[in-house]
Amino acid sequence: MDLLKHRLEIARMIAEELTETIDEKDRIELARWLEEDVRHRVEYEKIRESLGVENDAWKEQEKGRLLIDTRWRMVKSRTIRKKKRWMTWSRYAAAILVPLCIGVIWFMNKDEGREVKTVVVAEIEHGSAKARLELADGRKVNLDQETCLQLEEVDGTKILTTDNMVKYAGRDSLAACSMEMKYNTLIVPRGGEFALELMDGTRVWLNAESKLRYPVNFVGNERRVEMAGEVYFEVAKNEEKPFIVTVNGVDICVLGTSFNVSAYQERVITTLVEGRVRLTRGNEHVVLAPNEQAVWSGDGFDVRQVDARNYVLWKEGIFYFEDVDLETILDDMSRWYNVNIFYVNPALKVKKFSVEIKRYENINEILRRIEQTKRVKFEIKDRTINVYE
Amino acid sequence: MGAIIQSDKEFEAFFRENFSAVYAFMKRYTQDDELAADLAQETFIRVFERREEIVSVDYGKAFLYTVARHLYWNHCKHQRAMENYFAQLDENDTDDYDFLQEVTRQETIRILYTAIDQLPPQSRRVILLNLEGKNNNEVAGELKISVNTVKFLKKSAYETLRGLLSKNYFFVLMFLLGE
């Protein structure tokens, strides 16, 4: 339970940090915790993001607070009262009526509760084209399959959003042209995916729970973008201006090529389909040839041979896993179907499975296929998938 | 170290402090208001049975969420006999990342909520907008007050929050409930 206790400490520190009431010692400890694991940073970001008015957790706790008084009465009658009841009983036999009344009230309350309760089983839907575009002036635009918009950036650049894609199309005049770099960000939530064509013609596909920050116009002698999550790039050739992807401190430098980057965790997995890429992190670097995959796992690059096509099938609407651990498979599922995963036995996470299925298929289909191996069982309870043996 | 939940008042304080977070935790897994409230309620009843073991506030919370996790799972097994579930409470189960993440999130929000709720209305609005990521100018625009007023309200709010957060809320509640 030490791990859990430590987490409770971390929660307090985050709350204090957000309200600027944290002391120096805790600030250092919190920074160390965030540095430790990229998942911690993701968690922290999620908490920050969820603090808006729309936030669910906030609302849920508010609902919970409204229930405190009624629920306390029920808990009291089954804990403290129970104890007292016995004492009263033994002393005054006549008081027998009191607990009886309490019992009746409690029973009535309980019944009332049951009447209201209608369990709605939410249909779990597969993901779809969804994203949010953040413009340089802070405007935020929500996009989905039907969105068809023409926007204009501050520097006059035209942005078209149509057919599940954001497209940058030049400016009308050069008058507004400035040398200052303006950035846009495309954010794809859980249960979403989206495509993008940058100003230089580079095409990009973002998988669920991913993010790309890029300049509206590539000024200077390089084309640099930042990403999180999973993104597939088809970089337009321009030998004078290398294209650089920054992710978790790793720089992926290319001239013109196609490759996939998956970085949901601290690891950065780069898979090259064609062309050449050069990866740099600090003093370490490695060059990839087609069908090679480099994994950065904190202390160095590991390169191995793969069939690169399998790693970009997601953008063709296919889930493909070959001898992959259950946790990785289900993490992917949870992002695409926007569900939670609950491991009854965490040891199941490392079991390996192979499976291929369409992304636009019902989630039951993939779970059923994995279950057929008889090594694991699933149970769907609303938006949670329970995993057990 | 002695148990921290000895009197009824102490148990009530523990309940009032943590109920909404446990409720939200259950809600995330069950997606059902009524069921979440029932399971959260049950969690406290179970913890009460073992209150002598709770020797610190931190331990109490960790224990609470561990019981919550097991109750959720027991519920899923369709009210399978509840025998021995305390025996299953072992540490290895709590390394489930998703579980740890959810507890951290609920706790952070609970602490923020409890503290911010103590602020006067205008300061509370300023702090909430601030947490949403808005800067002083944006906050001023939204609330139609001057930037200086925003700065002033923020400063006094942070002072109040500092006082609130530095104390453990459990003891503040004990005090509020009185003897």
Descriptive notes:
The complex is a heterodimer of chains A (389) and B (179). By secondary structure, chain A is an alpha+beta fold. In chain A, α2 crosses α3. Chain A is globular. By secondary structure, chain B is an all-alpha fold. The two termini of chain B are 23 Å apart. The interface between A and B is large, with 63 and 71 residues.
Biggest β-sheet strands, sense, barrel of chain B: none
Kindly, what is the distance between the CA atoms of the first and last residues of chain A, rounded to a whole number of angstroms? 23 Å
Order of strands in the sheet with most strands of chain A: 1-6-9-10-8-7
Gyration radius of chain B, rounded: 19 Å
Find the structural class of chain A using helix and strand composition. Answer: alpha+beta
Mean pLDDT across the residues of chain A is 82
- Residue fraction in strands of chain A: 25-35%
**Would you count the extended β strands of chain B for me?**
0
Low-pLDDT runs of 5+ residues of chain B are 79-92
| Structural class estimated from helices and strands of chain B | mainly alpha
List keywords for this structure.
heterodimer, A: 389 residues, alpha+beta, Jelly Rolls, Phage tail protein beta-alpha-beta fold, 3 domains, 6-stranded mixed beta barrel, 30% helix, 34% strand, globular, B: 179 residues, mainly alpha, 8 helices
Would you summarize the structure shown here?
Chain A has 389 residues and is α+β, with helices and mostly antiparallel strands. Chain A is 30% helix and 34% strand.
What topology does this entry show?
The complex is a heterodimer of chains A (389) and B (179).
Chain A: H1 2-18, H2 24-36, H3 38-49, H4 56-78, H5 80-91, H6 97-116, E1 128-134, E2 140-144, E3 149-152, E4 158-162, E5 165-169, E6 183-188, E7 192-197, E8 203-206, E9 210-215, E10 223-234, E11 243-247, E12 250-254, E13 258-263, E14 268-274, E15 277-281, E16 284-288, E17 292-296, E18 301-305, E19 318-325, H7 326-336, E20 340-343, E21 352-358, H8 363-371, E22 377-381, E23 384-388
Parallel strand pairs in A: 1-7, 5-7, 10-11, 20-23
Antiparallel strand pairs in A: 1-2, 1-6, 3-4, 4-5, 6-9, 7-8, 8-10, 9-10, 10-13, 11-12, 12-15, 13-14, 14-17, 15-16, 17-18, 19-21, 22-23
Helix pairs in contact in A: 1-2, 2-3
Chain B: H1 8-30, H2 33-49, H3 57-76, H4 97-116, H5 121-131, H6 136-143, H7 147-166, H8 169-177
Helix pairs in contact in B: 1-2, 1-3, 1-4, 1-8, 2-3, 5-7, 6-7
